[in-house]
Structures are given as structure tokens and as C-alpha cells.
Amino acid sequence: MMQPPTTTGSADPLALILAKLDLLGQQQEELNAKLEALQAKSAAPLSPATVTLRSPAPKPMRAGQVTESDGEIDVVPASVKPAQRPANPYGSRVVLTTYPKQFGIHPLPLNWGAAGPQQRGPIVASRHPDSLKIRNAIGAYGGSYCIYRALAVALGELDPMHRPDFGLTEPPVTIGPHPQWSDPKKIVSLDPYGHLVTTAFQSDIAAGADVRPTIAITRAHMRIAEIEASVKAGRLRADGKIVLDNGELNVTKAAVEPVWYLPGVAERFGIEETLLRRALFEDTGGMYPELITRPDLKVFLPPIGGLTVYIFGDPEGITDPTKRVTMRVHDECNGSDVFGSDICTCRPYLIFGIEEAVKEAQQGGVGVIVYFRKEGRALGEVTKYLVYNARKRQAGGDTAETYFLRTESVAGVKDMRFQALMPDVLHWLGLTRIDRLTSMSNMKYDAIVSSGIEVVERVPIPDELIPDDSKVEIEAKIAEGYFTTGGIPSKESLASTKGRMWEDLQH
Ligand SMILES: [Zn+2]
User: What is the distance between the alpha carbons of residues 203 and 192, in angstroms, rounded to a whole number?
Assistant: First the structure.
């Protein structure tokens, strides 16, 4: 919401804060200049890394005390006496990079959507001393797993100075480059060069930049009970190449971590970049101050789950206009996908999507499954279970009519998946046409088509694959606009389509 204009003549608080930050930055710059001058006099010149990691101030400090000068902070843990203090693997000085125009901070140039990797520049999100001053992205590598990395360092299991050895990790297949990679509007939520960083940014890495892949591609076999049953029943034939005799599938897969180009993400959703930055700052508990203080940094690696692409058949066929592509875009549902819960259609639809993808590959085309880590419509599993309880307990029972109402009353919204960023991965693959889309979601379809990819045919889940207890979900979704080749459920039908009550579970 916009703030009402001030009528008292007092200045905008944000402007005051920014002015103050600017002043702090200037003061810091002066102090740093003095520091560098002092260092220049010493016999052995110190590298920026040594400045960062220099010894604690000689004067004694009380536990819990924080002192601040020139953008660096000394911290003594409050909970342990200095004598028992564990070795701090980072050094006692914390270097903040939140000041605008901070001395010595020179982010590597980054031109999102430029014609090639060299023109675009590497994405440097590391706080390794070699990269701290050239860092050009907010957040950290590894998505949400950066938190486990932090724990590993804090527990002494991981050296914070560890630099990964990427030898032999290169992709076994070629993906791209595609023209979409240099269209700043087509891809805004992943780094299209994410799997190529060790070659594309070799010189930057050799110069010390800690640039890490945000995409990895590999090949594997996979076994799925339903697919094996399909092969046994003769619905799917073994061909020794895509489907092996024992029912195993041959697959190429890619794991993708999110990399958001904030101006592009804001534009995709039709909002202001400043509002997007503010919302990300507020709703991560103020976790990334640079979202507010460093408007010069345009890229953010959010601490959220990424996605996995499963490709059946030759990946290069994806961009061959003579080859057909069958695809399913699936959002994570751990309860059904992995544990077989029957309250929804997720696993049956996923398996159906895989089977259709495999059949396409067997006919000379390509089958693609994209699996997004957006559990429970991106509301999370805790919210999902709360909604299940409310659905089962409500007066009148669990009906299709009240399906979305219960989600809204708990979460405030029906759905937070916001499919607008989803097609980015399809553009990364170089897709321009999907011959068969095994999805009923109107939100996914609209997002794909409006991003410029043609969808020839939409394929709903066959009725016989819908578990009884999930009829509530599927009817409610069809009534909301999901694609169907059948009829739209009437109001009466929505009221009478009921899920199982808890008591029924005991029979
Ligand atoms: Zn589900």
C-alpha cells in the first residue's frame, strides 16, 4: 500500500535512513582510505582478505559487546566466556556490505540478458574473502541449503574458505545456448549459464572469483513401481534404450536453483521493483538488508527450493522442430508424490505424465517432466495439513464446494505458486512448442502460452487414475477453470462431492 503523503513537512523516513546510510558510507570510505594508507606503509602489503580477517581489536571486550567501525563489526558471543570461546573460522571481524557506495566494493559488472556469458558476466554470490568485494548478487548459493552449509561451518565440519573442486562435474549432455538465453524478458528466475560456469567464466574463476554452478545436469536410471507394472501389463513396451527390460527408465536430469533478476521478476508480475524488494525484505524477517540498501545489486538468490527437469529421449530433440515434445510441469506434493496419500491426484498425474513422456520418447520425440519444489501450492506442508484438518472437520463435511474456502481461511490465499516465472525453465531448454501438455491447470497453461510457447494439445488426467478421496480436489479445480474434456461440475455436484471422513479410515 502507498504511504499517504506527509502533510507536516517532515521528511520521508526512508529518505532519512538512506541519507544516514550514505553519510555512514562516506565516513567508512574515509576510514578505509586511512587504513589502506597505513597498510601501504607496512612492509608486506595486505590483501583485502587479510584486512577482513585481521586480529580482533587489542582492547578487552565484554561478552555480548558489539563495536562498529568502518563497516566492520567485532562480535563477542554473549553466551560463552571469552576464555572458552570456540575458534571462529571466519575471523572476528564481520564485513557488512550493506552500505551504498562502500569503499573497496566493486561488484563485477552484470548485464542480464546480454548476448553471451562474457558480456553478461558471472553471478558472484559468495562471501569468500576473494569474492566479497566483487560480489554482485544478494543471497547465497545453494538455495535453502545455504543454512545447512552455515551449520556445517559453525560445527567445524566445513572450512568456510573451502573452494569446491568442479573437475569432472561438467554436464554429460549439451543444453544451449539458445536465443532465449539472451532475451532479458524470457528468463528472469534462473541463470541460463548456471551449468556452464566452470567453462563460461573460467577466467573469472582463475582470477579468484568464487563462482558456483546453480544448475547441474546428469544421467541416471530410475525405477517406479507403476511404470514397472505398466511394462509387465504390456501398456508400455521395453525398448532397451528408454525403457529397459526390467522396467527401468533411462533419463537425463537437471537440477536448477533459483536466481532472480529482480527488475525482470518485478516486471513479470507487473509490480515495482522497490515494492518487490521491500516485500522480500519484510517477509524474510529482514534477512537480506541489501534488498533495501543496495539497489545497485539486481540479482537475488532466494532461499527457496528449485526445480528438477527429467528428460526422456534425446535432449537435443527439444529444439528440433521436426520432433514432438510431451511435457508435464508438476508442483511438489510430498504426501502424494512420495508417500502415496490419496487425498489428491498428484502422484497419479505425475506417473501418467512420466508414462506419456516416455511413450513420446519411444516414438522418436522427447518427453519432459519439470518438478517444482512448491509444496502444497507453495503454502508449505504445515499449512496443507492444517487445511486438511479444517476440511475434514467442517460442518457438512469435506466438499468440493468448500475446497478453496478452507485453504483461504488458513493461508489467506488459495495458491501462492504464481506460475508467471515457471516458463523460464522451458525457455532455458529452448522450447518453442509443446505438442502434448499433460496438465489441467489453467494457470500453468496461461503462463506457458503468454510466454510465447505454443501448446498444441492439453491432456487431462484419465478418470480411472483419480483416487476416490481426491474427487473433491479435482472437481473444485475444474469448477475454478482447470482444463477438462468432460463437463464442468454444477453447484449441486460440488456440494455433493464429498471426501472421506476420518471415521471412515477405521473401516
Ligand atoms: Zn497432492
Answer: 18
